């Protein structure tokens, strides 16, 4: 490493004085104008991580569902996973180092993490459609080149596509070709194979309306559409030509407001879905004949997928162990349905996909989804091999089921939750099972729920345990929540400091929307009073 050159370039990417940032749940995120130095430094860090793991590392420039003016960056580890926790700390140290300390911090990290500085480094880069993303990704490239690393810039990509590229490159193409072409081909081939039976049995073509959040999903889905000559007809909305990224549209807007996005024309009972700004989340929804809006979130997606996979396993007579991983935000009805009706074991982890992903790796088939629509399914090597073997050995209906499983393995992006891949899986399952969106929705009824945000002086005064379902500090808060919950039927509530925003999140569910709203409000007031609320005390009504 040419430390003098690094110091020289570092000065060209000056850190705004006093700015402290934390590598959080989804990397660094803040206003785009404050991120140039972070990008440059993450280029430097990606080179060190690549040298240390002797693998290709990914850098994605995106702020997902956040406003267009924001941006962010995260590193992708060798198997397409989120950056290891110890390196998150290194990232935070490097991002916050004063100009003159950058050299020292780099050497410190190299020493602590036993990085062989003679090793080659290779980094791949992707970015979303934000106006600031191109310039910021150039700063990442500056960091990579000045520290002697090699790179490939994929340019515009969805976040899960970048995870996929990293995974492919580090498994010598075994997982697929590390190009967008390779990604489209792998997924569309699996989809066409999987749905062949549904369509040749006389069913018509699937048709779906997609709200692309005015983001990268629109570009990539449009490219991918060419790979389906028949079978799936997709109409794209909010493609970014006029609207602003994530503004009044996209998966996060639909989930948190529980209403349809602007800019989409919906007929009653028509199946629609929304991606978020970097296309790693998806939610479905429809209007019923009475004009009521129905949201089908990540919990219902996990349920549909679990029931399909369980049926196929039953058909082939193989007892691979399935586990469903959720967070505390999963609707209580979904957990009950999975455990009691479907008899599938359910596990709860902390918020943030890295926690769910990690837990899901413990099973032959690990299905994980956050309620907001971020998730995928992981298949162990043993499961993949068994299924492949059975698809060759078995006959007739059993063979067909094993073949379906083989194709569904290929259709999932096992590197990361992926709106495009999940959408294709869902469309295939609905076609194969002959289910309408209403029938899917009717699997169980969500408990009414409400999420609120409370502003406090220091959100870290709240610490939690039991996968964030219980507050340990400040004293008295959990007791207050317990007492409030007792006042309502079928109720549950919890609070936790957000990992991506400077707020405390409050979640409540109960037997009616009125009760859920009122419980959420009362818990917000308790947080405000006991955890140092700032500004005006929370007001009832939404
Ligand atoms: C309640 C909720 O939806 N939280 C989101 C949000 O995390 P917070 O730590 O709650 O701010 O952003 C994360 C990153 O995108 C996502 O993984 C998570 O599910
Ligand atoms: Mg996202």
List keywords for this structure.
Alpha-D-Glucose-1,6-Bisphosphate, Chain A, domain 3, binds magnesium ion, 542 residues, EC 5.4.2.3, alpha/beta, TATA-Binding Protein, binds 2-acetamido-2-deoxy-1-O-phosphono-alpha-D-glucopyranose, acetylation
How would you explain this protein's 3D organization?
- Residues 51-94, 116-168 form the Alpha-D-phosphohexomutase alpha/beta/alpha domain.
- GO terms for molecular function: magnesium ion binding; phosphoacetylglucosamine mutase activity.
- There is one protein chain.
- By secondary structure, the chain is α/β, with parallel strands linked by helices.
- Among the domains are: 3-156, Alpha-D-Glucose-1,6-Bisphosphate, Chain A, domain 3, CATH 3.40.120; 298-418 and 431-441, Alpha-D-Glucose-1,6-Bisphosphate, Chain A, domain 3; 449-530, 2-Layer Sandwich (TATA-Binding Protein).
- 42% of the residues lie in helices and 19% in strands.
- It contains 18 helices and 19 strands.
- The protein has helices at residues 3-12, 36-53, 85-96, 102-112, 133-146, 159-170, 180-200, 216-225, 251-257, 298-316, 332-341, 353-360, 381-393, 396-411, 419-433, 437-441, 477-485, 513-530, and strands at residues 28-31, 56-61, 70-76, 122-127, 150-156, 206-211, 232-237, 272-275, 282-287, 293-296, 322-327, 346-349, 365-369, 375-379, 449-454, 463-465, 470-473, 492-497, 504-509.
- The strands form five sheets. It has a five-stranded mixed β-sheet, sandwiched between helices. A five-stranded mixed β-sheet has the order 7-6-8-9-10, with helices on both faces.
- The protein is globular and about 65 Å long.
- The model has no long low-confidence stretch (mean pLDDT 95).
- 2-acetamido-2-deoxy-1-O-phosphono-alpha-D-glucopyranose binds at residues 25-26, 64, 329, 351-353, 370, 372, 374, 498-501, 505.
